[in-house]
Write a structure and sequence with these properties.
Elements lengths: L12 E10 L2 H9 L1 H7 L3 E4 L6 E7 L2 E11 L3 E6 L1 E3 L5 H4 L6 E10 L2 E11 L2 H22 L9 H9 L6 H4 L3
Antiparallel strand pairs: 1-8, 2-3, 3-4, 4-5, 4-6, 5-7, 7-8
Helix pairs in contact: 1-2
Length: 180
């Protein structure tokens, strides 16, 4: 994770993660633009309109939505969208400072032999804690897609574990990770 504590709010903190999956960029890209495929690895309810200006809305838990707008859709190599959180519940403080449209996520799909490398670059996060929370999220959900594309069971949705980490510092929250 990179960031500059003195950066302007539109720059903020950046999280970069990378995962290799089986399948061509064409096959993998569909898991980010087709609601049924997207729901298999991320989201309970998924509303996608993958075109510039189209809506990205994914319910990750009851009354908690990741919401944004597609800025660029370049099949099968790149997606760019705004990102943030909305919900009728008290969101963890690490997500409260990331309202819809306040950060940007770029997905790149790079051919790698018989597979694809998914590169995620999430920018504009307001704090180091928000960066930590989003890295935890991407690194918890992308392995589900790795499993699905390998023909394996993705296992239980990690939201229960993520919620514990986000709400309870003793379960691995940002204060815990700073302890020597």
């Amino acid at each position: 994770m990179t960031g500059n504590p003195g950066a302007t709010p539109d720059q903020g903190w950046t999280v970069e993660v990378e995962h290799r999956v089986s399948g061509s960029p064409d096959a993998v890209f569909a898991y980010f633009t087709d609601p049924e495929k997207h729901r298999r690895w991320y989201g309970v309810d998924v509303e996608l309109d993958p075109r510039p200006g189209g809506a990205y809305r994914v319910m990750v838990a009851p009354q908690v939505w990741a919401r944004g707008e597609y800025l660029a859709v370049e099949p099968p190599h790149r997606l760019l969208l705004t990102w943030g959180w909305e919900g009728n519940l008290d969101l963890p403080h690490t997500l409260q400072g990331v309202p819809p449209g306040s950060s940007t996520v770029e997905f790149r799909f790079v051919p790698d032999g018989d597979g694809t490398i998914i590169r995620v670059r999430h920018t504009g996060l307001p704090t180091e804690d928000a960066g930590w929370a989003h890295r935890l999220g991407w690194d918890s959900y992308l392995p589900r897609l790795v499993a699905i594309l390998a023909g394996d069971d993705p296992g239980e949705d990690p939201m229960r574990t993520l919620a514990a980490a986000l709400y309870d510092r003793d379960a691995g929250g940002p204060e815990w990770r700073r302890t020597p």
